Amino acid sequence: MTEGTAPARPASYDKKVGLVLQGGGALGSYQAGVYEALASSEYMPDWVADISIGAINAAIIAGNAPKDRVHRLRRFWEEITAPTKLWPQATGALAAWQRWTSAVMAISFGQPGFFNPSAWSPSDKQISYYSTSALKATLERLVDFDRINAENEMRLSVGAVNVETGDFTYFDSREMTIRVEHVMASGALPPGFPPVEIDGEQYWDGGLFSNTPLQYMVDYYPRRSRVIFQVDLFPAHAHHRPTNLDEVNERDKDIRYSSRTRLATNTLRERHDVRHAINELHKLLPPEIASTEQARRLHGHGCVTTMDIVQLIYRPDEPQGSLKDFEFSRPAMELRWQQGLADARTTLQGSPWLAPMSSELGVRVFDVIHDILCRNVALSEKASVRALAAQ
Predict the structure, then answer these.
(1) Could you give the CA distance from residue 54 to residue 49 in angstroms, rounded to a whole number?
(2) Which is deepest, 70, 141, 175, 388, by most CB within 10 Å?
(3) Is 287 exposed, middle or buried (0-12, 13-18, 19+ CB in 10 A)?
(4) Which region holds residue 24: left if phi is over 0, alpha if psi is between -120 and 50, else beta?
(5) What whole-number distance in Å separates Cα of residue 13 and Cα of residue 172?
(6) Parallel/antiparallel/unpaired status of strands 155-162 and 168-172
(7) Cβ-contact 130, 189 below 8 angstroms
(8) How far apart are CA 29 and CA 119, in angstroms?
(9) Please, which residues bridge with residue 372 across strands?
(10) Cα(29)–Cα(389) distance, rounded to whole angstroms?
(11) Which pLDDT tens digit goes with each residue over 25-81?
(12) What is this structure's pTM?
């Protein structure tokens, strides 16, 4: 391994590759950058599971030939950010003004190729503020649904919530024919977007129930050992304390979404470790106990698969504002894309999942960028202590 390159993936590391994309609106260009890095690596996903804006990105990925995927993602994100394409990259007060203005423009006028304000109607008939008919046309133009539904192609799973029952549902290309409506349903966040009708039932954004499809990918039976790249758009750790109400609202949103992701990930890790422990324990049982009905039932809950979960989290260097998931400016889109690309490349260069796995573990969780940030903070603190001691 040389500086700036990822170590070669050995043949012995034969785990399947999964990609989990979550919701986050305009922040989703970070996911596109992550995929660009994976597309040129030895970790091309064979399965993408996703919710909300992640479902749109994933449909574009799965619905195109490998050579066209990054280009099609770029077309989507450039089309929906076209009104601000001439805005310069900025910092400080100008960047803050751009973020606020872009969010207000999106709320007031919508985004081309994505959503538009709904025609006014009496309040008792209005069920959403925007129409997503433009998104339907965009997806039909950029996504080949025949490819998604063909055998031996990348698997696509999108999550949505049934409006009437409140049940969470995954539409999975392994089990059904995926249409444009399934992708739109996964991103139909109320009250902004209207529900999408599928086979007589109405569905809303899967993020209402769970903002991460990680559990579906790990629990799906029959299980396969996997390395799963989980892309989260809301950071749990803050760079600084909020200093105004807008930052308070942004931090509130980060905590609400990231805490659900962390809870789901930690619960999944504990459950799969237990499955693995059951399987290891069963090997140690004397034959007369292993053959009992109780032991067989317990063994049915065991699992031999192991999972490596690689977290990639959007961590902006400065506050983005409480409306950041509605902030579709071209400069912000480009910065998020490039950060996703850089974070994924750095993570691939580290490849900590290639280290041997302890036999007692069923799941390992890695966050390379977090580890680097923690090391940098520790080094900075040591340098400060040395400077004070030298005075």
Answers:
(1) 8
(2) 70
(3) exposed
(4) left
(5) 27
(6) antiparallel
(7) no
(8) 29
(9) none
(10) 45
(11) 999 999 999 999 999 999 999 999 999 999 999 999 999 999 999 999 999 999 999
(12) 0.92
